[in-house]
Design a protein that fits this description.
The complex is a heterodimer of chains A (233) and B (661). In chain A, α6 crosses α7 and α9 packs across α12. Chain A has a two-stranded antiparallel ribbon. Chain A has 233 residues and is mainly alpha-helical. In chain A, 34% of the residues are buried. In chain A, 59% of the residues lie in helices and 6% in strands. Chain B is mainly alpha-helical. Chain B has 25 helices and nine strands. Chain B is elongated, with a radius of gyration of 40 Å. The chains are: A mainly alpha (233), B mainly alpha (661). Chains A and B meet through α4, α5, α7, α8 and α9 of A and α1, α18, α21, β7 and α22 of B.
Chain lengths: 233, 661
């Protein structure tokens, strides 16, 4: 990866300039940080590692690189837009464009955690494409695995009721308050109870990956809806 | 949705988190019939060719280039889109699609730019913050210039003006008629005379019998009194005439000029009624001072004076700061000088307030010399005082000067008030554009378009027609929202419906069931296609004897003749706001009939809070809609032959409550 470490590039520029002005240091720092850019791996490599075709990668990258800039005018929120990576704020802004009525920030946060596999606080194009490749081009098992990974907030291999409740609340938050029928406060909790009843085979209060996959495979609604992702792109 | 269409696949992929928790099946996804790969399209603008990806243009489906409107400009022979517009301006428009930011090029004429934006369907409020100030300034200048032109035309006499209006016009614009000009000059002359009289009154002229110089005022009392009376009479008459002619007397009385007028003539009348009492003669003298305010009446005659007055008013904060800093410095130095000079004998610095005078005179570099420090310390501090005086005064003054020049050049419009309004209007318009996307989803949901797309039955022609009405991107977005609804088993509704629902649940506890076989005949308030006007809270009319003849109003709903007794407490008939339809350009591009038909054919009823056994049938047409009240998929009825193509505008969605009594 040709990622330049931020500090590395800073020190490089200082050596080159020779003019390191203490007084205006802070301004130069900001200037430096904003020009650090991240270039993804070559398309061939990505093509090997994911299941997308060249054309699809092209379309995805063009959209990705344009990440936040077009949104800033609409939102009037001054945000950084470092090209090449998406940080959590941008992620949330982008996702909220699709759900104007509710609050999608929590769900976007969970999504961000799921996409950011190397836990560096930003989603690079590789992370993005790997995630999408699993969801859109993976087998049903792959998809279920990914979904399990999304639900398992602390990545310990099992979903507790609290984790599921957080996820459920974030989904219900996306609906907003203007719904029919009126949104009750216990709706997420009830839904979680339903879920655990269906998924938790041995009734130990957590859902492990095996229980999850097994229960999903038995449920034909879920199987059918997983096939929705076949022709998203 | 505008700029993020590229991220739609990601958003749809992210829906994987909902699938395992959903309790029911998900709706079927819309299919991409076009099978169009992303292609380069060529835009030929007056000979200059621009090329871009199709998806770039699709980012903003509300504009000309992003919608199917550009097909009107497609040239079959050259396979490119030809626009007969300015290629220079087109650059910034195309950059808007590419980067999402609209910039205003400084060399461009503001009205030409506005026209280009209007042609391509882009609202100027989207202009990025980097260029927005410039844009607004130029626009304001232009507007002012136009306004100036208009004001010149205003002087033309309109026919049928009442005497009062004529008089007011004469007062405000003296050059409109000869009489007005005469009046203008006469009043000016008398103001000058009055001021001169006041001045000359105090000049000593000649001696009186007491061998003492007396001012002319006391020597020629009668003459001066007559002069004063004449001037005041003229002023009074003028004021009363203005008061009579003013279109809004209250505003006139509050205006600065009229207050000056009043202050100018009041002392005379007060002097008339006051007796020659020893106590009040002192006050009487003070009152005469106010006569000098007559000089301010000149500001009606001089534009420059008015500008000066306005500048001072608008520089109030800088002036206040100047005053404050001066006061601080004066107090400090006066104290210092007092204590420094305390020691010396026969000093003039008897107290701190007495030293104020010295400080002011020194700081403003006047230096009268009536108070001079004698001690060495006093002289040192005195010199520091004079040096700092120059600085303290010199610093705020350029600010005031620059203010004055700015205002002078802009001719003192009320900038700030207008800017606030414009900013609010700008935000409001962008907010409306954004909420358009929400409304578009709800609207298409109601009109059942979603169902149409999801219904796999239907002929090819039908599918093609429907795919024209809503772009693929939009249909995918709506499908996403629909999946969320299914996951959470709740539906999106708009604000007003939500309020109504809340109201309804409160009301439901109060309505009593009625035994009469009231049927649920409601008047649909579909607003498009020229349907019948709305009526809120109508009582149920008589049941119709049969299917209404289609000629009168083909969209009036009616009920089945047979059927058991139906009790109902209330029905909500929500009609969709067709104004929101306007926000999606693609729907505008289809023929009006299609839009009308699609809108009105689908049931306008989506939610119905009905507590009865056999649900009523409510359809906009002759077909009976049997089944559950929440049914959103009416069987496709035949296209009505007469569908008035007009789409009427309504501002908000309408809710008709029909209650059984």
């Amino acid at each position: 990866m040709k990622t330049k470490n931020r500090d590395q590039s800073l020190s490089d520029s200082r050596e080159l300039d020779g003019s390191y002005d203490q007084l205006t240091d802070s301004i130069e720092d900001d200037f430096e940080l904003s020009t650090v850019c991240h270039r993804p791996e070559s398309m061939d490599k990505l093509q090997d590692q994911t299941k997308f075709t060249k054309k699809e990668l092209q379309v995805l990258y063009r959209g990705f690189k344009n990440c936040g800039c077009s949104l800033l005018c609409l939102c009037f929120v001054p945000q950084e837009c470092p090209s090449g990576v998406v940080n959590e704020e941008n992620f949330k802004t982008i996702y909220s464009q699709f759900f104007p009525q509710g609050d999608s920030s929590m769900y976007a946060h969970f999504l961000f955690e799921a996409f950011d596999t190397d836990k560096n606080g930003s989603v690079s194009f590789e992370d993005f494409v790997f995630g999408l490749s699993i969801i859109l081009r993976g087998t049903i098992n792959d998809r279920l695995n990914w979904a399990f990974n999304l639900y398992d907030l602390n990545k310990d291999g099992c979903i507790t009721k609290e984790e599921m409740l957080d996820i459920m609340k974030s989904i219900y938050d996306m609906m907003g308050k203007c719904t029919y029928p009126n949104m009750q406060d216990e709706a997420p909790r009830e839904h979680v109870e339903n879920f655990f009843q269906k998924m938790d085979r041995n009734k130990d209060g957590v859902v492990t990956i095996e229980e999850f996959i097994e229960s999903c495979q038995k449920d034909e609604n879920i199987m059918q809806s997983m096939q929705l992702f076949d022709n998203v792109i | 949705m505008a700029g993020v269409s590229a991220w739609l696949p990601f958003a749809r992929a992210a829906a994987i988190g909902w699938m395992p928790v959903a309790n029911g099946p998900m709706p079927v996804a819309p299919r991409d019939h076009s099978k169009r790969k992303d292609e380069l399209i060529v835009l030929n603008v007056s000979g200059r060719r621009f090329q871009t990806w199709r998806t770039t243009l699709d980012r903003y489906p509300d504009s000309l280039l992003g919608s199917s409107e550009k097909e009107f400009f497609f040239n079959e022979e050259t396979k490119e889109y030809f626009f007969d517009r300015d290629p220079d301006s087109f650059r910034s428009i195309l950059n808007f699609y590419r980067t999402g930011k609209l910039h205003y090029p400084r060399y461009e004429c503001i009205s030409a730019y506005d026209e280009e934006l209007a042609f391509f369907g882009i609202i100027p409020e989207i202009i990025g913050d980097c260029c927005y100030e410039e844009y607004k300034d130029r626009k304001r200048e232009n507007a002012e210039r136009l306004q100036d032109d208009q004001e010149e035309n205003k002087d033309l006499k309109l026919p049928n003006m009442t005497a009062r209006e004529t008089m007011w016009r004469a007062f405000e614009n003296p050059h409109t008629s000869t009489m007005a000009l005469v009046f203008y000059y006469v009043t000016g002359f008398f103001i000058a005379i009055s001021v001169l009289t006041n001045v000359v009154e105090t000049v000593p002229c000649g001696t009186s019998t007491h061998q003492k110089e007396v001012p002319c005022g006391e020597r020629f009392t009668v003459a001066f009194f007559c002069m004063d009376t004449a001037c005041v009479m003229i002023f009074t008459v003028e004021y009363l005439m203005r008061l009579f002619a003013a279109p809004s007397r209250y505003h006139f009385m509050r205006s600065v000029m009229s207050i000056i007028d009043v202050v100018a003539i009041l002392p005379y009348y007060i002097g008339l009624v006051m007796t020659d009492n020893e106590d009040v003669s002192g006050a009487f003298v003070t009152l005469r001072v106010f006569r000098v305010f007559r000089i301010f009446k000149f500001s009606r005659h001089s534009q420059g004076l008015r500008i000066l007055g306005y500048t001072l008013k608008s520089c109030a904060s800088e002036l206040g700061f100047l005053l404050f800093s001066l006061t601080m410095a004066i107090i400090i130095f006066a104290t210092v000088m007092f204590y420094a000079e305390k020691g010396s004998s026969s000093t003039k610095f008897t107290s701190i307030p007495a030293s104020f005078w010295y400080t002011i005179v020194t700081m403003t570099t006047l230096g009268y010399g009536d108070m001079v420090p004698k001690t060495i310390a006093g002289k040192i501090f005195g010199s520091i005082c004079s040096l700092s005086g120059v600085l303290v005064i010199a610093l705020p003054v350029p600010v005031i000067v620059s203010n004055f020049s700015r205002i002078y050049h802009q001719n003192q419009r009320a900038d700030k008030r207008r800017a606030q309004k414009v900013q609010k209007a700008r935000l409001a318009r962008i907010r409306i554009a954004k909420t358009g996307s929400t409304n578009a989803f709800l609207q298409s949901k109601r009109s059942g378009l979603l169902d149409e797309l999801l219904e796999l039955t239907g002929t090819e022609a039908d599918e093609q027609k429907l795919s024209k009405s809503v772009s693929l991107l939009e249909s995918q977005h709506y499908h996403l929202l629909y999946c969320l609804e299914k996951t959470t088993a709740h539906e999106f509704v708009d604000e007003q419906a939500f309020e109504q629902n809340n109201l309804e649940t409160a009301l439901q506890s109060y309505t009593s069931p009625s035994p009469s076989p009231s049927s649920s005949h409601g008047e649909s308030t579909s607003t498009c296609c020229g349907c019948r006007a709305r009526r809120k809270n109508t009582a149920l009319p008589e049941p119709e004897p049969g299917p209404s003849p289609g000629s009168q109003s083909p969209f009036r709903p009616h009920h089945p003749q047979r059927g058991p007794l139906q009790e109902l407490s209330a029905i909500h008939i929500q009609c969709v706001d067709p104004a929101s339809h306007k926000t999606s350009r693609s729907s505008l591009n289809q023929k009006a009939e299609d839009g009308g038909r699609v809108n009105c054919r689908r049931g306008q009823v989506t939610t119905a809070i009905i507590s009865l056994q056999a649900p009523p049938a409510l359809t906009p047409e002759g077909d009976g809609l049997h089944g559950a009240p929440h049914q959103r998929r009416p069987p496709p009825p035949p296209i009505p032959p007469q569908a008035p193509p007009s789409i009427q505008t309504m501002s908000s969605s309408h809710i008709v409550k029909v209650s059984a009594l």
